[in-house]
Design brief:
It is built from six helices and five strands; from the N terminus they run αβααββββααα. The chain has 118 residues and is α+β, with helices and mostly antiparallel strands. Strands 1-3-2 form a three-stranded antiparallel β-sheet. It has a two-stranded antiparallel sheet with strand order 4-5.
Amino acid sequence: MKFDKADEDKTFCKGCINCCLWPGEVFFTQDEMAKAAELIGIDERTFADTFFDLADDRRRLKTKPTNDGRCIFIDENGCRVYDARPKQCRTFPYEWQRPEKNLMKECALYLALLKKQL
């Protein structure tokens, strides 16, 4: 199910990291990686070596896995690259969702958009 972009994301996503704690891979393009490296304040090569593996399609980079499945950029303060997050993160849950209903129930924005659509 796709939703139209709404102002609700500013309310529900500010500080929420529920979707960032789910196991999975986050893909970055070269441009997205460069912006995130600049935000963190390290050079692109060090950033890539520290946080990424080459994706199976060999066209993108994917975040390295963590022991608990959460995104590698999540720390005690939230997302370290939020202002430079990739399209995959910026378009959740507007363009994609996890198929597991129990995971989507953890997303307040998804539930608000779903209610609005009914």
